[in-house]
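Notes from the pairing session

We agreed to fold both candidates in a single pass and log them together. This is the raw record for the first candidate, unedited. Please don't reformat it; downstream parsing expects exactly this layout.

Candidate A
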Amino acid sequence: MSHLDEQLVQQWLNKNRYFTIQGLKSGNDEIDLLAIRLLDNGKVEYKQVEVQVSFRPIGFVCGLPLATRDEALIKEGVQAWIYKKFESPRKCELRARFAPRDAKWDFVLVHGEMKHRLEQQIFESSHVSLVPYRSVLSELSGESTHVTSSPANGILEILRYMDSKPAK
């Protein structure tokens, strides 16, 4: 399902005028999506987007077991996840292949359900923007004029159909 989730997020970014690159790899490291957009004022906006969608989470987004309750451990886990996903030297090198080295990157986590409110609060206080997957799907399914040949488009057609036809 994660590849499909990434495709839907990619379609959402494309709809919002971003040029996207999906699935960049360096060894075992991967970046889900890079998104680059030329703004009307001539400046360029750069985003690295990670997609972690779980509808029934059995742990933290950052990988800790759900039974973890110690706030310091959770904060440490979130910071380690942010470093691994966005700040490690390999991730910086991968991004540098597609933008000037001095480019200012925004970091985004598209997420499903977050079981633990504390984890969400720690992410919100970091430099990573949180985007609920539900809002991505809602925006995509509500817009019928943006049709592409993306594999994700078929899923969007199903969502639109479900919204438009009452169940019998």
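Candidate B (folded immediately after A)
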Amino acid sequence: MLDSSKALVESPTSRHRGRPRFRFPELEGKERKNALQRYYVSRRRDAWNHYQKEWRKTHADAYNEQRRKFNARHLAYLKSSPERWAHHLSLARANAKAQYARYRQMYSTLLGDECYCCGSKGPLEVHHLSYPNGKHFNAHKTFKEVRDNPWNFKRLCFKCHMAITHLTSKQTAIPKIIEVVKATRVS
């Protein structure tokens, strides 16, 4: 790996065709040529990516229209052949399964491998402790939220998740439920 701090150091003793060697003076020959080429290509790529991001910000409507037209053309192309469409769907399913596996791995890393309430290790779900602005999220946004704010989530089994969800959605029933639980005797 090349050290970027050495990339802009001028070497006064080493001259290349009469010019000082400002970038990568410690390298010689083809190795230096390849390093310089990678350096300038990456700078051009970074500049272009920055330009594209700025253009998308300032021309959001035009960009969204371009994407909409491209997506419509691409979808029509995929659907024009049954084999192509079937292949596309199989790839989409495979990508969705892989993404789901990544999400589950991340959830177990951040939130644990067992139900927060009962400790079961069966199929687990992610429970929001609070929703920002009262809005529910789709799976991808939930993934980002868990990654950014793991303290706002608990992993629960299906039974505990349903119980907690019903208890929190019917606030008026909570005192009655507690009464019934206290009155119930387990032998």
